[in-house]
């Protein structure tokens, strides 16, 4: 029987492991941390019983993932919950951009911009499941559905700032801008619309879901599926050198590209080793989890019903803060994302004490403490919030990269989404998963289709590895 080793038990490592085990391979996963899951772990931290997502929380890309839905993970305990409202972007004048799963309902709330929102998202979201067959693969490929892809793809090449100008109301501009900012890029650059449009389109089709019982439920379901297929997982095994790797027909790395260059060293073709070592990382995230007594006292009522709240002021302010963090400067008022997963999944709370998830965009490797800046941004749109804080826990960019070595300098996307890395992946190639040495592949979020708990990077990489193994036989 063929054997496979997967290094790293994040969602992509587990997805690769499941795909390889389902193809009949004997699979071993090696994970550095004491617990599996990488960016999909949850746990108690502040108040006993209060459940926090350690990293990923909101899953518009995972809930409709062709890979995850194809595994029937409900059998292994994964179930999705949807908040009443997907996302709210409040503004200082008391108005807000309000994102519903329904394009129509969102458009209805955007007044003069309703027709434009509809024009942008109606078609692509209706055909999202078809579109996903193309956009969840390496970008450069022969499209399965060229017309659907072209219709979606044309606006993605625009800078987010150009697309934002299509809208006439500040609410629509900010709503779009806050989602575009998930790319952690200066929004005046080409292709910075792409990630925002992808998230918004997926969300209009499948909603901004959370996993019941925390994002750890995605991990637990994948691990249970793997166990059913005969795969094994060893935790507490940090792979730093190729000598630690057991012999295997296929070795998959759910790791940052620079880590793979370090581990494999001169066992890689030198041009590939050099390319991986040159891989670039983006700004960092500074995370604060709060225990909050009662609901957050949001000024805008829709924010009290939303799974996600984006705090960054109007479009111009978001664009300025994203530009600053990319230039290595910490803005006084950073872009902050707030998650209220407990609204959709109330079992995460303890009585009237609720877990609030937040992180701020900060410069790469930022060494300061952004806690006060995050609290101030929440206070700005929810006066009185500070008095409701029961306790909190922080994770700086350095602590983020200790928690998970893939988040270099606190970069939670596992790599800057600049034009080159967005289009090609970890290096300039049409084969982004290949490492140029037989049987070895990269499968982390640094590869297409990129970050998220959808497992598509791992599944795609494993399919490529299996095809190559069959061809070698
Ligand atoms: C704070 C935060 C918030 C986020 N929010 C969201 C969100 O709301 N929605 C969303 O879709 N995505 C979100 N993400 C991103 C998402 O979590 C990642 O894109 C996803 O987890 C990437 O999966 P992965 O399998 O590629 O890598 P990871 O999940 O990073 O897993 C990599 C695994 O490899 C292990 N590892 C690293 N080095 C070694 C080594 N040398 N040897 C052995 N094991 C090793 C790590 O411990 C880890 O378990 C967030 C991430 C963070 C950190």
Please characterize this protein's 3D structure.
Pfam families: NAD_binding_8. There is one protein chain. This protein is of the alpha/beta class and 473 residues long. It has 2 domains: 3-78 and 212-280 and 411-472, FAD/NAD(P)-binding domain; 80-210 and 282-403, Alpha-Beta Complex (Polyamine Oxidase, Chain A, domain 2). It has helices at residues 11-22, 66-69, 103-109, 114-126, 128-135, 146-156, 160-164, 170-180, 194-206, 216-228, 257-264, 270-277, 315-326, 371-381, 385-388, 397-403, 419-424, 456-472, and strands spanning 3-7, 26-30, 42-44, 51-53, 80-81, 85-90, 96-99, 210-211, 232-234, 250-253, 284-293, 306-311, 336-339, 353-362, 389-395, 440-442. The strands form 4 sheets. Strands 7-6-12-13-14-11-15 form a 7-stranded mixed β-sheet, sandwiched between helices. Helix 1 runs parallel beside helix 18. The longest helix has 17 residues, at 456-472. It is globular and about 65 Å long. The model has no long low-confidence stretch (mean pLDDT 97). It binds flavin-adenine dinucleotide. Residues 7-13, 30-33, 38-40, 55-59, 61, 238-239, 254-255, 259, 285, 287, 359, 404-407, 412, 414, 444-445, 451-453, 457 line the site of flavin-adenine dinucleotide.
List key phrases describing it.
single chain; 473 residues; alpha/beta; FAD/NAD(P)-binding domain; Polyamine Oxidase, Chain A, domain 2; 2 domains; seven-stranded mixed β-sheet; five-stranded parallel β-sheet; 18 helices; 16 strands; 36% helix; binds flavin-adenine dinucleotide
